[in-house]
Every structure is written in C-alpha cells, then in structure tokens.
Amino acid sequence: MNIKVTAAMIAPFLFGLAMVACEEAVEPLTQQEAKQGLEEAAYSSVSASLEADLVEISTHFTIGSAVNAAAEELKTFLLTQVPCADVMIANSLVTIDFGALEDGCVYNGKTYGGVVTIQIVSTDANMTVVDHEWINLTNGTATVSGTIKVTWDKQNQKRKVQHLLTWERNGEQIIVEGDRTQSLLDSTEGIAGGIKIDGVRTWTTNAGVWTLDINGIEMRPQDPVPQTGSYVLVLPNGKTMQMQFTRVDNATIQCTIQGLKRTFTFQIKALGLIEQV
C-alpha cells in the first residue's frame, strides 16, 4: 500500500520540532543573572523612591486655584520646610536651589544638592499637571538630570508620572524612561508611609537595555526593595525573569525569581545585603 505524504501532514511535526529546537537554544537563567537582575531592580526601586520624594514636594498647594496663586502657595511652603534652599518664583515657575551637597541642605530627613524647577501647568478641581526639571540633583549616592511630568487625579487619588532622566551611577551614565501610576499607601502618613506603583520603566546601561514591568509594587522609603508586588524584568540578553516580593519581617524581604527552567530565592536585609536561600 502506498501512502502519499503531503506538506500539510508533516507541517505540524516540523513546527513542533522547531519549537523544541528554539526552547533548547535558549539557555536557562543563571544564578549570576538572577542576582544581577535583582540588584538592578533594587537600584530601580531606590531611584523610584527618591523620585517620589521630590515629586511629592510639589503637592503642597490648593488644587483648583490659579496656577500663579498655586506657585505662590508652594513657594511659601518650601520656605518653611526647606529654609536651607534658595526658593525663587517667576509666575507659575518655582525654582529650588539646594546648593552643593556639602552645604548639607536637608528636606524630609534627606540631604540634597542641585536644582529642581517646578512648573505648574494647569490646575482645576479634578486634575493638575506639573512639570519638573532636575539639574544635577544628587543625594550623595547618585546624580540625576532630566524631566518629569506629573498628572494628578484628585478623584482617584493617583498620579501619573512620566519621566526621561539621566542618572550617574559609579561613573556610568544611565538613561531612564518611565510611565507609572502612583498612589499613597496611607494618606495620613503621606510619602513616609510608602507608595503603590504600577507601570513600566526602562533603562540603558553599558550592558544594554533593561525593561521592567511593575505590578502592584508597594515601596516604603526605608526599604531597599518592594515589600510586596511583582516585577517582570527583561535582561539585555533577552532573558526574562519574574520577581515576587514578600515581607518576612520588619528588616527582611524575600524575593522569589523565576526564569526559564530555574527558580531562585533571595532575602534582602534592611541595609541592602542580598543573600541566596
């Protein structure tokens, strides 16, 4: 008996063979890649926390007031809260000059150097738009310059933060872009109580482009990594790792990392020390 083999008959077999070959060609996530990815994500979290601190500084005016009046109100607040800084105003533009880091200008318990400008673009009863520019802003660990657009949604108590920044870290310039939604974990505590973040953040280092999807992250200022929520990080080599954060105790957060064929678990201490478990 003769059996006629057609292209339609062998196509599924060839497709399955190709899929197996592709899967075998992709190497599993290594322990070194998992730790490096966690370190990058931790730095991203710390950067996001610093950004949130300085975005929060522009919230101190009455929503719905005219932009120039809002700027005057913001200036008055800054003069009382950051007396060490030079605060200037021109219409709806407020400029904060922290001076050099060595000058020791402190805001909200942290020392800053550099310049921040805050342009109140529009404000009404429901939504406010504020543009920030940072010029050689530093906290002693890193230096950042660039722009941030913040759109406040009063009804939902959330803010949309879009930024294009250049960070200097260990002598390397890192280009960072982001589009995230933030909300306070506890409105009575303000930024000190932490923030919840969803969105995306990408940054370019000497190694290549890193892409981070942010899902229900809860970040407190005192923690080196999120206390809950998840990240999906795409490494410059194309590998993907999922990170799930859970709090173990007040000084320890656990991160479970899942990549192709491999799972790793790390614990991060309050001072940023990372240990594999």
Would you kindly provide a brief summary of this structure?
This protein has three helices and 15 strands.
List keywords for this structure.
277 residues, alpha+beta, 15-stranded antiparallel beta sheet, 49% strand, globular
Protein described:
- This protein is an alpha+beta fold.
- It has one domain.
- The chain is built from 3 helices and 15 strands.
- It has a 15-stranded antiparallel β-sheet that branches.
- A hairpin with a 2-residue loop joins strand 13 and strand 14.
- The longest helix is centred in the first third of the chain and has 26 residues.
Strand content: over 45%
Secondary structure class reads: alpha+beta
Q: Report the biggest beta sheet as strand number plus sense, adding barrel if it closes.
A: 15 strands, antiparallel
Q: In angstroms, what separates the terminal alpha carbons?
A: 62 Å
Cα-based radius of gyration, to the nearest Å:
23 Å
Unreliable stretches, pLDDT < 50, 5 or more residues? 17-24
Secondary structure topology:
Elements: H1 7-25, H2 31-56, H3 67-81, E1 86-90, E2 93-99, E3 105-107, E4 110-123, E5 127-138, E6 143-153, E7 158-169, E8 172-184, E9 195-205, E10 208-219, E11 228-234, E12 240-249, E13 252-259, E14 262-269, E15 274-276
Antiparallel strand pairs: 1-2, 2-4, 3-4, 4-5, 5-6, 6-7, 7-8, 8-9, 9-10, 10-11, 11-12, 12-13, 13-14, 14-15
